[in-house]
Amino acid sequence: MDKQVQDNELVEVAMQIILHAGDARMKTEEALEQTKNFDFAGAKEKLVEAKECIRKAHHAQTQIIQDETRGKTYPPSLLFNHAQDTLMTIMSELNLANSMVELFEILDKKYSKDGGNNE
User: Do the beta carbons of residue 40 and residue 108 sit within 8 Å?
Assistant: First the structure.
């Protein structure tokens, strides 16, 4: 396979990763907005959607990594590195958002149950 074909393949995969990771970030932000409105069911639904976007991005990345373990080489690519960095960052944001939604739901249940009395 010639270098230009490999470059194009890597660019295409990098763009898929960035696209899906970006969709995950939007879904995560929507989940946090719903959490502000105490819509925990809606927030959890958005987090599930975000996780599916991350799965798609991770799958695209994994294909390249598996190709390299089988001996297929790719030239260094700043765009692919950026895509991987974007994916890792948004995965961290999603993990943190999951914890935040869970925490706020626990607090809401506690304060709804005892009328806000923290004794």
Answer: yes
Q: What is the pLDDT of residues 5-61, one digit of tens each?
A: 666 899 999 999 999 999 999 999 999 999 999 999 999 999 999 999 999 999 999
Instruction: Write the secondary structure of 32-54 as one string of H (helix), E (strand) and C (coil).
Output: HHHHHCCCHHHHHHHHHHHHHHH
Q: From CA 76, how far away is CA 80, in angstroms rounded?
A: 8
- 78 is a domain residue: yes
Whether the Cβ atoms of residue 96 and residue 31 lie closer than 8 Å to each other: no
Q: Which residues are catalytic?
A: 82
Helix 3-36 to helix 78-113 angle, to the nearest 10 degrees? Answer: 20
Chain centroid to CA 23: how far?
Answer: 8
Q: Is 16 inside a domain boundary? A: yes
